[in-house]
């Protein structure tokens, strides 16, 4: 996937989570890359497997391992997923798109000597040493395309989403807004664009004055 495809996937995932949270007051509970379904229309990726956690009792979890690396730290005590834990999982998904690394791989393997066992903590350790360029997927770097600023911006969004303090995380709507801003407004809905176009046309007509009568 090139950078544009990854950005579209990130935006679609965030929009799906925001829709569940705001329109239905439901937590997804199982956000991960295998539940993000890509479609021929690049703007129509969809989240699957949502809210099935409500049908089953929560299973005991171990830190860094349960959920394949997507599970928020506060869910270790087997509480039900929340909007904030969904945002954490969404942030891990963003990191996966940026790094090309599997969260489950990092969750199950300790890094040599420093005890880093999950993707967010690994990224934090690299950024802390000011080696930010080392975070990004080598395939993205090879493709180039001048997307470095957007990659860094999405990394900042992802790191906010995976904050260990739930209250420090943005909500899903804020994540959508931030990603749309990174894309330079390309994430606006067709309705918004049409309404702006209509408003602009009306203002132009008013500036011309009344049309001559026959």
Automatic annotation (TrEMBL):
Record region (Disordered): 181-214
Protein kinase domain segment(s): 1-189
UniProt GO molecular function: ATP binding; protein kinase activity
PROSITE patterns membership: PROTEIN_KINASE_DOM
Signal peptide: none
SUPFAM superfamilies on file: Protein kinase-like (PK-like) (SSF56112)
InterPro entries the UniProt entry points to: At_inactive_RLKs, Kinase-like_dom_sf, Prot_kinase_dom
Gene3D superfamilies: Transferase(Phosphotransferase) domain 1
Family annotation (Pfam families): Pkinase
Name this polypeptide is given: Protein kinase domain-containing protein
UniProt organism field: Digitaria exilis
């Amino acid at each position: 996937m090139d950078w544009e495809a990854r950005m579209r996937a990130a935006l679609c995932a965030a929009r799906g989570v925001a829709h569940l949270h705001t329109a239905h007051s439901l937590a997804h509970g199982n956000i991960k890359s295998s539940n993000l379904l890509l479609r021929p229309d690049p703007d129509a990726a969809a989240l699957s497997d949502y809210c099935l956690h409500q049908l089953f009792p929560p299973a005991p979890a171990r830190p860094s391992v349960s959920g394949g690396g997507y599970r928020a730290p506060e869910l270790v005590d087997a509480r039900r997923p929340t909007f904030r834990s969904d945002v954490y999982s969404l942030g891990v998904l963003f990191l996966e798109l940026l790094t090309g690394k599997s969260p489950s791989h990092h969750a199950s393997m300790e890094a040599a000597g420093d005890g880093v066992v999950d993707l967010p903590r690994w990224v934090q350790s690299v950024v802390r040493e000011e080696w930010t360029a080392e975070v990004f997927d080598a395939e993205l770097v090879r493709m180039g395309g001048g997307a470095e600023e957007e990659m860094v911006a999405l990394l900042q969004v992802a790191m906010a989403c995976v904050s260990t303090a739930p209250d420090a995380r943005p909500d899903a709507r804020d994540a959508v807004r931030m990603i749309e801003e990174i894309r330079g407004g390309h994430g606006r809905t067709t309705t918004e664009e049409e309404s702006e176009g209509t408003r602009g046309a009306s203002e132009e007509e008013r500036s011309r004055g009344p049309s001559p009568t026959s």
